[in-house]
Amino acid sequence: MAKARRILLLSAVAFLISLCALPQPNERAYAATSLGQYQVTATALYMRKGPSKNYSSIALLKKGTKVTVYSIKNGWAYISYGGKKGYASSQYLKKVAAASLGTYTVTATSLYMRKGPGKNYGTIALLKKGTKVTVYSIKNSWAYIQYGSKKGYASSKYLKKYTKTGSTASSSGTTGSTTPSTGSSSYQYEVVTASALNLRKSPGSGSTILKVLYYGDKVKVYSVSNGWAYVAYGTAKGYVSASYLLNLNGKTICIDAGHGGSDPGASGKLNGSTIYEKTINLAVALKVQSLLQNSGLKTVMTRTGDTYPALSQRVSIAKNAKANLFISIHSNTSSSSSAYGVETFYPNNNNGTASRVTNSIKLASYVQARVAAAMGYASGYGNRGYFYKDLHVLRENTMPAILVELGFLSNSTDLKKLASATYQSKNAQAIYDGIIDYYKKN
Length: 442
What we know:
Elements: H1 2-19, E1 36-40, E2 44-48, E3 57-62, E4 66-73, E5 76-81, E6 84-89, E7 93-95, E8 102-106, E9 110-114, E10 123-128, E11 132-139, E12 142-147, E13 150-155, E14 159-161, E15 188-192, E16 196-200, E17 209-214, E18 218-225, E19 228-233, E20 236-241, E21 245-246, E22 252-257, E23 267-270, E24 273-276, H2 277-294, E25 298-301, H3 311-320, E26 325-332, E27 342-346, H4 356-374, E28 383-388, H5 392-395, E29 401-408, H6 412-419, H7 421-441
Parallel strand pairs: 22-25, 22-26, 26-29, 27-28
Antiparallel strand pairs: 1-4, 1-7, 2-3, 4-5, 5-6, 8-11, 8-14, 9-10, 11-12, 12-13, 15-18, 15-21, 16-17, 18-19, 19-20, 23-24, 27-29
Helix pairs in contact: 2-7, 4-7
């Protein structure tokens, strides 16, 4: 009998150990303050008890579901939804842009914009009287604001809601005017710069949401009043916060698909077939062209087929088109099959203007970050960084110029990705997003 009890006791202990086999997440390690509202982008997303697929699910979240995110680490977000807290893959979550209270103007002769809601916080900027800012919240006499690309706090005592002359703006931000007609030809294309932006029925943060727009989406802008733009996106028409729109009209981007024709570039073997660099470069370049043109940007291509323009011709094409940016797309190779990842190069001479190198470096940093993430190398060795390299198409151009190496054809993992239509689209989107990042922040 005693032996039987011992066996039962040992069995119970073993069962309890098995339940605790997975490392238990330390929720105290996560900050109490949230990173904001995020939206599920997958068709369905499991919310789990811990940061791994090995943990059991708590809930199944549908596409469009909004959750509060407290932290993101190693590809997993600690979230709350419907009173429950748990983890979900951060890959399928997009931040929802905070709704603004509208545009305000500074009424003091000068007003400090600070890092926090108090006079003890350091200053970010000094705002002059009449400066317009976007206000997101007001609490304890401090407003959380945006000025240009900077966000911070200012005393709400010296901020007044902006009202356009002759308008009848109410406290909710509505103008009292009738909805503008989109039948007019008077509009311009602009691009969404928020990760997610609500298209609303009327110009106010409390208005009904008609649709959610995402980073890089192109809209037709018909009018802007009191910080709200009346826009059309496809067949949907409504209002969005004008703070998250970027006007790229008049910009021309030169896209250079490396190699081509008699120069195949690097190559790799996949399932018995030879994959040539020139083919991958062109496929991605054409997709970037389509994305740019759909956003209202002008493009010029150094090649659109299997041809080989000389390096000097590629530079001349960009110069003759008076391009604002030059982006050369390549795929890498190495004598070692273990080398992998993404890297981007920029020039170090001031050919054209003194700021060309500085802007090239900025462009390289944005494109490198986006493409590395698209290839699954947001951090670690695979994100090889951005560097100076003395290359003809970079050195001889007169506008900001970069050359991005999407991955290594000599590495089996990179090769499989680069040869797939899925990753070619991902890389094209990443290059496009990097260009938008550059114009948004530069």
